[in-house]
Structures are given as C-alpha cells and as structure tokens.
Write a structure and sequence with these properties.
By secondary structure, the protein is of the alpha/beta class. The protein has two domains: 169 residues, Rossmann fold, CATH 3.40.50.450; 113 residues, Rossmann fold, CATH 3.40.50. Helix content is 44%, strand content 16%. The chain has a four-stranded mixed sheet with strand order 3-4-9-10, sandwiched between helices. α7 links the parallel β6 and β7. The longest helix is centred in the middle third of the chain and has 22 residues. Bound molecules: 6-O-phosphono-beta-D-fructofuranose (F6P). 6-O-phosphono-beta-D-fructofuranose binds next to loops.
C-alpha cells in the first residue's frame, strides 16, 4: 500500500494536483483527518510493508449518518476526488460515496486474498504468496529430515489463491482450497499411496476458508485415520507484512498512477486493475458483480506434479 500511496502522490504532484492523505481510511475521512502530502512525504516508503496512513475498520461508515459525515469532510476539505486503496469492502464504500454523495472516487485493488474481479493481481498478493512459499520451503527441511507430515494453513478468507499458488510453487503433496471440494478420505488415500511408493514426508497447504476446517482440525482427522506424525503451522498475519516484492511495487506504482489519470479524465465511480499485464478501468461495481474465478488448471497441475 505504501508503494501505491507514493505512486498516487508523485503522479498527482507531477500533474500539478494537490494531494491530502486521509488517515485510517473511511474512519479518518468521517473525522476529517487529512493532511497535505508532497513528493517528499512519500520518500523512503516504497520498500515498506503496511501503510503510512494507517487503516481501520469503520462500522459507522456503513450508516447513512457516517457517510454523511464523510461527505461533509470531503466538502470542508475541498477534496475533488478520492482514491481508495483496499478490498471489496473499501470499494463498496467508494461506490456509495460516488453514487449517493456525488463524490468522484476511484478504487485501487489491494488485498492479499487476490479476490477482486477486474484485476488479475491485487496489491499485496504476490508478497504474501512469497512469504507463504518461503515458509513452505523452510518447513520442508523438517518434514524431510524427520519423516513428518506438515499441514500449513495460509490466509485468504474465502479465497484459495495464496494456498494454490504457494502450494504449486512449493511442490506440495496436497492443496486444500474453498474453490474445490475437500474429501479427507481421498487425501488420506493419496497420502497412503505415497507412503507405499516410498514417500517419507509430505506437505499439505490448506486455505483458511477450506470446508475441511483449520489446519489443527484437519491434522487431528488425518491422525485418527492414518496415524501419521503430524505437525501444523498456521502462518497468520506474517503474510500481511514485510517488504513488498518487486512485482507488487510495480503493480502498485502502475495502478496508483492510473488512478490519478482516471480522476484527471473526469471519470468517477471506477476501479483500476491489471488484466493480461495491461491496466484496465472498470466501474467499481464490477468488483462484486463479477466473480473472480481461480484458475483450476493450477490445481490440476499440482496434482500431476505430486505423483
Ligand atoms: O482479507 C485479508 C485478510 O488478511 C484475510 O486473508 C484474513 O482472513 C483477514 O484479512 C484477517 O483479518 P484481521 O487482520 O482483521 O484478523
């Protein structure tokens, strides 16, 4: 997000537009917490995770009264356009501000879950993926040396993107994601088959939203069925921090600059996204009216690779 804030600020300054940073997202907007940002304010942040503007859940913003307060702040601060960086919930807020309160808004997709239609990649996903992959690689050392089965739980809410991509890149034996049916008997059968072929260790990556439950629960169920020596790792918020990958910084920079151009062109109620390596612009509602499908060919490939 910092790389994106930097891009928005620098592109706006380049175009002769003044920028104010709103602290704590919609929560801060309702309180009018904004201060000017210039090119220097965003120096030295491109490599830092998180957001210098901070963020917050803003339940009040879901109400008419909360949005009214936000709209008043926008007017009081003489803000002519708002760029919102975030996921589905943030986009819905940006949509309301535009449609109900006539404030020009543009959304930039940023979530490690990579679950926003209108962008092949969302800011943060690749960095989280690399973190998950690094963990899988490290866990494999113990799995191999100690003949163990590891179950690694990754984030993603209801999306299996981190699990699928980290699992494929990490060459794991099983990937359990919400987008496919999970049959633990079948998983156990394959583990047993692998053991019969001489496999002494295995790794299962499970997405937190999988129907089979969390990693500990799955571990218990597998232990009951086939009695493996099992260890569990839940990666949690490790995946949401750290220095962004090169790809994320470039994505954030491209999307941030385009968002400024969208407002300059007088377009509003839009989102920017990356489709086949080109920046595209869609109405904000595209993000929830369309469903972003995960590419299950990745899943099939992972199964072939696990033989
Ligand atoms: O949506 C991003 C995400 O990191 C999910 O992957 C995860 O389930 C959730 O947010 C965690 O939210 P919180 O930080 O509020 O616990």
């Amino acid at each position: 997000m910092n790389a994106c804030i930097r891009a928005v600020v620098r592109k706006a300054v380049y175009e002769g537009i003044e920028v104010a940073g709103v602290r704590r997202g919609f929560a801060g907007l309702m309180e009018g917490e904004a201060s000017p940002l210039n090119a220097h304010s965003v120096s030295g942040i491109i490599h830092q995770g998180g957001t210098i503007l901070r963020t917050a859940r803003a339940e009040d913003f879901l109400t008419e009264e909360g949005q009214g307060r936000a709209s008043d702040s926008v007017k009081k601060l003489a803000i002519e356009g708002v760029i919102v960086i975030g996921g589905d919930g943030s986009f819905r807020g940006a949509y309301d501000l535009n449609k109900k309160w006539q404030i020009p808004t543009v959304g930039i997709p940023a979530t490690i879950d990579n679950d926003i239609a209108g962008s092949d990649l969302t800011i943060g996903f690749v960095t989280a993926l690399n973190t998950a992959l690094a963990a899988v690689d490290k866990l494999r050392d113990t799995a191999t040396s100690h003949d163990r089965l590891f179950i690694v739980e990754v984030m993603g809410r209801t999306s299996g993107y981190i699990a699928l991509w980290a699992g494929l890149a990490g060459g794991v034996e099983e990937i359990l994601i919400p987008e496919t049916r999970t049959d633990l008997d079948e998983v156990c059968r394959k583990l047993e088959e692998g053991r019969a072929r001489g496999k002494t260790s295995s790794i299962i990556v499970v997405a937190e939203g999988d129907e089979a439950g969390g990693a500990f629960e799955i571990g218990e169920k597998i232990r009951e069925r086939i009695g493996y020596e099992i260890r569990v790792a839940v990666l949690g918020h490790l995946q949401r921090g750290g220095s962004p990958s090169a790809l994320d910084r470039i994505l954030a920079t491209r999307l941030g600059a385009e968002a400024v151009d969208v407002l300059r062109r007088g377009e509003e109620g839009k989102m920017v996204g990356l489709i086949s390596n080109e920046i595209e612009v869609f109405p904000l509602e595209h993000a929830w009216q369309e469903k972003k499908e995960i590419d299950l060919r990745f899943y099939q490939l992972s199964q072939i690779m696990a033989i």
